[in-house]
Amino acid sequence: PVALIVMHGMGQQIEFQTLDQVAQGLARAETIATGRALEPEANVVMIGDQIVRRVEIKGVGDEEREVHVYEAWWAPFTEGRVGLKDVTSFLWRAGIRGGFARRWERWIFGGMVPFNVPNLSRFGIVVTLATLAAMFVINATMAPAFLTRFLRDESVRPLAADLTVAATPPLAAAVLFVLLYFIAEWVRGLEGRRSAPPGALAIPSILTNAMRIAFLVLVVAIIAGAGLIVWFAWRHFTGDPRALYPFFERPWVMGLIWAAVLGSSWKARRFLIEYVGDVAAYVYPYHLDRFHEIRARIKDETNRIARLVYGAADSDGSLLYDRVGLVGHSLGSVIAYDTLNRVLLEDNLRKGALDALGRTRFLLTFASPLDKTAFLFRNQSRETTAVREALAATAQPLIRDAAFRPPHFEWINVYAPGHNDIIGDELDFYDAPGAPPPPRVVNVPDPDANVPLAAHVHHWSNPTVWMRLRSAI
């Protein structure tokens, strides 16, 4: 049989949810390729002295292989441990440290390799920093402005009305974007998903472009809204205190506006903590050292599962799996990369007792932020030197030595084209530019990941990932 070790991504994850998604995805891929329907089976086994649950799928691929799917479930380790302050600090420091660099260097296959930073990427980082600052201004103003509205002092009440005007642009832009988002999801949902070939779930390009424009308008409106707040406050305390728009003095109008803004702010806060917070806790050690225990527990759990799978043996003592693959979505791709590096490193130091290098056939990443974590978060210490980078690479055999990327090993990265996914993307920082073998990362566009922002999670229901996984198996 073939063994799959899967790592879930960011946000709240239910135990066994990822196992189910992978099993159903492989079953759909088999239906697309051959018309056969597979029935995944749940099982519990004893490996060594530990009880492990897995999903078994028989008849995958042209060779009709049996596949055993294991899950490394790490979600409980980060739940409730990261706050909004941690997330904003993480994004701000990472952006300041890496957002203004034109070039950066990374140790790959024996030397420091320079990479250019695209102008679009640097511009995106600057806009992100401006948006963070604007969101801070808007959030810091919400409660005081709302409470001021109910004061009897006529000298300050107009200020509340002025500040609600500043909240209107981001609110209107948010409503527009959310409306287009639900329309796109509805159009996409009209297509059949269970047996659709790649490319069948595309939405009209005019709708995709409209969503992109609406998202840009939303970002501009947030920054402009913060600017209006500052300007209105300055105007009130230095000039004519009368409200600019008496319409917003009406209580029901103000109530509707601030209820919508507060609701949007709460959703944004929840998204930042659940998704970006997991990244902050795992990949950013320099200023969040109190998360060292979280990182250690995640790595211990994923390494435990990996050691069990690689060490699983038949009754006669021979190794059970001749092919092992790792699969990771989003932050799970970063964890899968770290786990595979750890397995290869430990087995190499033990003289190849488990033949991990020979039996590892593929690493499949999708919606992966590995390029971003490499550039922004992991290697941007101000004291970075060639020696330090070389030491960091010793824990990453996949970029340290070409021998750890043999011809039988595939690294497949599925991404959303057209920058529809602001978290995952192509992976360009794990191969030396223009270099010959070892096998390079194969970046595969997912034509069905075409809803901006939502594309990050749509890979799960799209056929591209599962067809590539079936092919690798």
Please tag this protein with its features.
single chain; 473 residues; alpha/beta; eight-stranded mixed sheet; two-stranded antiparallel ribbon; globular
Strand content: 5-15%
Distance between the termini: 10 Å
State the shape. Answer: globular
Indicate the low-confidence ranges by residue numbers.
none
Instruction: Report mean pLDDT, rounded to a whole number.
Output: 80
Share in helix: 40-55%
> Element order, helices and strands?
EHEEEHEEHHHHHEHHEHHHEEHH
Describe this protein's structure.
The chain is of the alpha/beta class and 473 residues long. The strands form two sheets. An eight-stranded mixed β-sheet has the order 2-3-4-1-7-8-9-10, with helices on both faces. Strands 5-6 form a two-stranded antiparallel ribbon. It is globular. The mean pLDDT is 80.
Topology:
Elements: E1 2-7, H1 17-34, E2 41-47, E3 50-60, E4 65-72, H2 84-98, E5 103-108, E6 111-116, H3 119-148, H4 157-189, H5 205-238, H6 251-283, H7 292-311, E7 323-329, H8 331-349, H9 356-359, E8 360-366, H10 370-378, H11 386-394, H12 397-400, E9 410-415, E10 442-445, H13 455-458, H14 463-472
Helix pairs in contact: 1-14, 2-3, 2-6, 3-4, 3-5, 4-5, 4-6, 7-8
Briefly characterize the structure.
It is built from 14 helices and 10 strands. It is an alpha/beta fold and 473 residues long.
